[in-house]
Amino acid sequence: MSEQLFDLVVRSLWISGTALLFSLLWSVPISLTLGLRKFKGRQVLISIFNALLGIPTVALGLTLYLLFSRGGALGFLGVLYTPTAIVIGQALLITPIVVSLLTSAIESVNPGIRDLAKTLGASERQASLAVLGEARKGGILAGVAAFNRAVAELGIALMVGGNIAGTTRVMTTEIARGVATGEMLLSIQLTGVLLLVVFGLTFLTNLFRRD
Question: Does the structure show a pLDDT above 70 at 49?
Fold first, then answer.
C-alpha cells in the first residue's frame, strides 16, 4: 500500500469514526427517549427521523456550506474546508440512521426488563441502561450502518471539505478526482479498500448478531 493510499484511508476512517462518536452523544439519549417513553408528538418525531434516512448528501452539504461560508450564520467558526466541517456534516447525516435503528432495537426489548430493574431498586437511568444493554446487537448494527454511510458519502466531504490534499481529501473525493483526471489506478484501489471496509464491517456485524 502506497503512502498516499494509506494516508487517504486513515484520514477517511478517522473522520467518519469521529463523526460516529459525536453522533452517538445525542442519538443514544434521543433513541432512549423515543423507545421508552410515550408522549405527544412521539410518532411524528419517529416519522421525521425515518424520512431523513434518505436525505441527499449534496443537499445537506449545500446547507452546511451556506452556514459555514464567510457570509453565513456560522461563518465566524472558520471551519469551512477543514476536517471539522466534514465531521459535523457526517455526524448530522448519520444521526437519523442511528436514531431510527436504535429506537427500533429498544422498542423490541421486553418491557419487563425495565420494570424488573426498577423493582430491584434501579434508578431511571440504570433501568434505561439495562434496556440499552439488551438492545446492544441492534445498537451495533446501527453504529455500523451509520459508519458505512459516513465513510462512503461524497457530497458533504466535497462541498464543505473542499478536497484539499493532505487535509480534507478522503477516499470518496479522491475517487471522484481520479476519475475526472484520468488517474484510474488509485481510484480503483481506493474503491476496493472502501468496499472491503463496508462489506467487512457488515460481515463481522452479522456474525456477532448470530451469537
Answer: yes
